[in-house]
Specification:
Elements: H1 2-15, E1 18-20, H2 31-34, E2 38-43, H3 46-59, H4 64-69, E3 73-82, H5 86-98, E4 101-109, E5 112-121, E6 124-133, E7 139-149, H6 150-161, E8 166-169
Antiparallel strand pairs: 1-2, 2-3, 3-7, 4-5, 4-8, 5-6, 6-7
C-alpha cells in the first residue's frame, strides 16, 4: 500500500515540474534574445530540488557543511540555452552588474567557464546566479534564491578548491 501512495505522490509531484521554451531569466525574456538562441527553462519544486541536491552532494562525498547549505535555498530556476554567443554573454554580464550582482568566483575547466555571482545587501546574500558557459556556445543558468551569508559562499568556493577544477576568486 505504501508503494502505491508513494507512486501516486511522485506522479502528482512530477507533473508540477514545468518545462518551457520561454526563458526563466528575465534578461533573456525579450523577442530580441528569444530569436537569437534556443532556451529551455525547467521549474522544479524546491523540495524536490533540495532532496536531489542533498543526495547528489552526499554521493559526491561533499562535507556536511556544504550539504547543510541546501537548507537555506528558497527557490531555484534552471535554464539552458544553445547558440549563446559571446556578445550575448557580455550583455548578460553587464545586466548582472546593473542589478548589483558581484562576481564571486570564476572557475575554468577544459574550456568551460563557471561564474558564481551574488546579489547581496549588507552581509545577507539573497540571490546567487551560477552561469556555466561551454566552449561550444551552450550555457546553463542556475538562479538560486535564499538567505545566505558570505561565509556560506566561501564554503562553496573552498569545496570547489578540493575538487579537480581550478577556481580564480575575483577581487571586489
Amino acid at each position: 500500500m505504501k508503494k502505491y501512495i508513494f507512486l501516486g505522490f511522485s506522479i502528482l509531484t512530477m507533473q508540477s515540474c514545468l518545462v518551457s521554451q520561454k526563458p526563466s531569466v528575465d534578461f533573456f525574456n525579450t523577442p530580441y534574445y528569444r530569436n537569437q538562441a534556443n532556451f529551455m527553462s525547467i521549474n522544479v519544486p524546491t523540495f524536490l530540488a533540495k532532496s536531489f541536491l542533498k543526495n547528489q552532494l552526499k554521493e559526491d562525498g561533499e562535507s556536511e557543511e556544504v550539504i547543510n547549505l541546501v537548507k537555506k535555498v528558497s527557490k531555484i530556476k534552471l535554464m539552458t540555452s544553445e547558440n549563446m554567443d559571446s556578445k550575448m554573454m557580455a550583455e548578460f554580464t553587464n545586466y548582472l552588474n546593473q542589478e548589483k550582482f558581484e562576481e564571486w568566483a570564476s572557475i575554468r575547466n577544459d574550456g568551460d567557464v563557471i561564474n558564481i555571482n551574488a546579489q547581496q545587501s549588507d552581509d545577507v546574500i539573497k540571490k546567487i546566479m551560477i552561469v556555466v558557459n561551454s566552449k561550444d556556445n551552450d550555457a546553463v543558468f542556475i538562479d538560486v534564491s535564499g538567505t545566505f551569508t558570505i561565509d556560506d559562499i566561501s564554503k562553496l568556493v573552498e569545496a570547489g578548491k578540493t575538487s579537480n577544477i581550478k577556481i580564480n576568486r575575483k577581487k571586489s
